[in-house]
Amino acid sequence: KLSENGLAKRAITFGNGNNNINNNQKPKISVQDQKRQLPIFANKNKLIELIKRHDTLIILGEAGSGKTTQIPQYINSAGLQGNGQIAITQPRRVAAISVAMRVAQEYGNGMGIGDYVGYTVRFEDCTTKKTRIKFVTDGMLLREAMNNRLLIDYTVIMLDEAHERTLHTDVLFGIVKEAQRVREQRKLTPLKIIITSATMNVDHFSKYFNNCKVVYIEGRTFPVDIHFAKKPQDDYQTSCVATFFQIHKEAPPDHDVLIFLTGQEEIETCAHQIRLLAKDPETEGPPVRVCTLYAAQPGLQQMAVFNPAPVGVRKVIISTNIAETSVTISGIKYVIDSGMVKVRTFHPSTGLELLKVQRISREQADQRTGRAGRQSQGFCYRLYTKSQFELMNKSTVPEVQKANLNTVALQLLALKLHMLNFDFMDAPPKESVEAAFRQLKLLGAIEECVSTELTALGKKIAKFPLDPRFSKILIMAEKFSCVKEAIIVVSLLSSESILLNPPSRREQAQLARQKFRSGHGDHVTLLNIYKAFEGVGKNNIRLWCHEHFIHMKNIMYVSEVKEQLQEICRKCDIPNSTCASQIDQLRKCLLSGLFMNVAELYRDRQYITLDKRQVTLIHPSSVVHGQQPRFILFTEVVQTTKCYLRDLTTIEGDWMAEIAADYAKKHSFKSSNGNT
Ligand code: ADP
Ligand code: MG
């Protein structure tokens, strides 16, 4: 069908089209030689000297210069970490895992990952007592700080990818700064702080860290020819595929292509289309190896993107913004930039958290472009026009300015710190802080919005590495005797979707999963699927997943998350229980954590949210789409052209008063004219 559309032959016109490509052979070199060829290598001794001399140091260097993989090894070879551990934070789990694996590989000596070099990401700890170099997501290091605010096990902490300004990294800036100060004051083992960034505007950082020293690593980059689309593209996904084939028919096979899209679903669709079209006898060009890179991939599969394709085969990598700066893949000659990124944003005025696909910043566009010029001259195809580019934000807005602060506010409270008084590099908006405290109060984690003290319930909630609303569900599950079911549902909600919905076989997929479908909504449907999955014999899992259009890797991940949550529940003395077929127990339990996410049928398919009275629709992917239950509870709001509610459970009207009495009083169901 795709080839009928002529997608492989469709021409998108770009400006500045001068495609003379020289055939550069990819040389095969040893790991040791690869290390020596990195731009950072020339600075090795200088860097070691500077790290020795300064307690806090900011290191700048372009993506791919070797900061993440080499600096920890330099520190280690010079013994600068003494008897402590080196922690290196990464904003994303994929990056933490893949760089840890790389560094373990560079050490060689039969040392596997988890020995000398390890990683810790949410729901997965791959470290041992022997581990000295530990890659960790910023979220996990923050969690560790909750139990050990001086982070005393670490003598060196490297906050990597600081330019991304994720919420967790921003909070860690304040935590490590304070830990360093207190450790010095109390004459404890000193803490060295290293901040690394791939962008150059760091005056701000230096000022925050008491005007600490900044060093630049001289990069080596080659010019990249930038081609803007001549006309705006209304379907950037299709344009990515079309652009790929435009390149594919002309470029030599060893010129690899990197495509930036926004998420798993888009990436898998694009991968599927390219695989299909590349095999089409009418398509010109060499064979293609398609690799994908996104958050929810298991470690080993991620590592496959680093393997060079066989001679005569073109490698194309389709990635989220992971490949923008945090992961570098060799051999990229072409970049295709959709210009889009998926961001989670929180709107304090509406109380809604949205997963939104939006335009990248110009800084991000330039980082993406740079990925084509690491080893030789490259090409970048931007699927947006020059004037669209000029309208983009200059730099990325720090996450603290736009994120939901609930979890972090709670974590800071666990450290007896109130977010309003925290030493932020850039303070969060007051409305977001207020919204966070309001929600914590609603959940019963604090008594008053001004308090710096968690309630007993709040302390329990803080123990789970989850959104406080999900933690509350697990804690309340004891009362509703549905701990087993609640753990499964929360695990499913903490992972990527287990449902596969290939666009061309959507109906078939729905039919295959029909037997799991529950009139109570998506959470119960997912629970049914998961329970069926648990009953499948180990050898039949692949087939079962295939038959039911279930994403095997994702559901395997869910089962790991489930084990971890069971473990935490055990530690928190929440005894296991099951509600068996009394599914109302589970529905009520979900409501006890998510009562602020309730919507009521308003008129003709429109739902109005109780809290902020927003008009929304049921997402077409929901099992209750097409029906019109009066009350629903939702997990997520997705904004595309309209505002959709996703992952729903139907609830009964009188449950609100039973489960969240105070809240129900203030937000009564009176949809008739929305007068509340
Ligand atoms: P930076 O942190 O400065 O962006 P990195 O230390 O991440 O740079 O990367 C240095 C080099 O290591 C890059 O050339 C990259 O291609 C290479 N590299 C990283 N991980 C792997 C891997 N798993 N396999 C092969 N090469 C890798
Ligand atoms: Mg890096």
UniProtKB/TrEMBL annotation:
Its EC number is 3.6.4.13. Coiled coil: none annotated. It comes from the Eukaryota. Keywords: ATP-binding, Helicase, Hydrolase, Nucleotide-binding. GO terms for molecular function: ATP binding; double-stranded RNA binding; hydrolase activity; RNA helicase activity. Residues 48-218 form the Helicase ATP-binding domain. It holds the Pfam family DEAD. Residues 243-416 form the Helicase C-terminal domain. It catalyses: ATP + H2O = ADP + phosphate + H(+). GO terms for cellular component: nucleolus. One of its GO terms (biological process) is positive regulation of transcription by RNA polymerase I. PANTHER family: ATP-DEPENDENT RNA HELICASE, ATP-DEPENDENT RNA HELICASE DHX33. This is RNA helicase. It comes from Ceutorhynchus assimilis.
